[in-house]
Amino acid sequence: MTQKISLTRYLVEQQRMDGHIPSQLRLLLEVVARACKSISQAVNKGALGEVMGSAHSENIQGEMQKKLDIIANEVLIEANEWGGHLAAMASEEMEGIYVVPNRYPQGEYLLLFDPLDGSSNIEVNVSIGTIFSVLLKPEGAGVSEQDFLQSGAKQVAAGYCVYGPQTTLVLTVGDGVAMFTLDREQGSFILTEENVMIPEDTQEFAINMSNMRHWDAPVKRYIDECLEGKAGPRGKDFNMRWVASMVADVHRILTRGGVFLYPWDKREPEKPGKLRLMYEANPMSWLIEQAGGAATNGKQRILDIEPTKLHERVSVMLGSKNEVDRATRYHGEAA
Ligand code: P6P
User: Fold this and answer.
1) Which helix (H) or strand (E) holds 327?
2) Is the pLDDT of residue 146 over 90?
3) pTM over 0.90
4) For residue 312, is pLDDT > 70?
């Protein structure tokens, strides 16, 4: 029987093999994984726990918060603030950064997260997830929001945990993508995939089709060609999926390929897109690139975008490389 490799053993061996994971980063990743286990247990309680429904509050994005959004945010903060590995945290659910209180030692890492992505799917029992990104705090005393404003290319770790039929943690530290499935009997994440690679081609796209009339011409051209199928310029039929949980859509793409688009559209033209750069697009884009895929905003590589605001939004096209390259090319041709 093949030996089960736990997340802890995987991180220790990665650290021992190529010193890729300093001990403080290993601690950080294990703490985040433990927090995701707690969030998974809360999510799995559903209507049997006191976790469903609205929190009757709004987040910085002006979106109604669910009780589980707040619970997940608190779990991540409480799990991470005392460990001495972090200087501060930032979350979709908090307007400003959360500086580690003086009663705890400060570390050199910055942790950003969307504590529960896709929470509109909670009540309908569809997969949701936690997305996280890790940056190094720039040299210098103290920590400020400005320290978080680094391009996605500067991430030192990124991942997500999808709460679906399985609870699966997906992680990169810049040396490929590994997947760990939660073994509830043992209570530990077990390595189930490593060196994940996305096929360069696909016949599956993910986009919210109800926004079609609001899309820019290059997106409309790309999707129209997919819809024309074998008889059209692509010469092959396409399938469509849209879970409305980025974590679930990205997990499908990492598992079998595909392309995901949440482009800018005319509904709120002043916004570059719906998804957030720092704690949704950047971590997901690094995972996708580490698995051989591509991720752009139609004009440039998402990981090269220099952020100006903590909660800034971005247009996202990511997944199978040849499809993202084509959709990006269409933007260039239209410019
Ligand atoms: P729409 C969830 O709210 C989210 O931020 C992503 O997880 C998801 O891909 C997208 O928004 C869904 O947006 O407009 O289809 O509901």
Assistant:
1) helix 321-334
2) yes
3) yes
4) yes
Q: Are 39 and 221 in contact (CB under 8 A)?
A: no
CA atoms within 13 A of residue 243's CA, in its CB half-sphere: 22
How far apart are alpha carbons 203 and 127 in whole angstroms? 22
Quick check: 60 pLDDT over 80?
no
Distance, in Å, from the CA atom of 122 to the CA atom of 140, rounded to the nearest integer, reads 41
Domains of the chain, start order: 7-193 (3.30.540.10), 204-334 (3.40.190.80)
Residue 44 CA, distance from chain mean position: 20
118 Cβ below 6 A of ligand 1: yes
Strand-pair category, 204-206 with 259-262? parallel
Ligand 1 centroid to residue 92 C-alpha, Å:
13
- The response to whether residue 117 sits with its C-beta less than 6 Å from ligand 1 reads yes
**Is 198 within 8 Å of 288 (Cβ atoms)?**
yes
The amino acid present at 181, given as its one-letter code, is T
Say yes or no: CB of residue 149 within 6 Å of ligand 1. Answer: no
**Contact (CB, 8 A) for 5 and 11:** no
* Cα gap 313→264, rounded to integer Å: 10
Hey, how many other C-beta atoms are within 10 angstroms of the C-beta on 60? 14
Q: How far apart are the first and last CA of the chain?
A: 56
- Are 179 and 159 contacting, i.e. CB atoms less than 8 angstroms apart? no
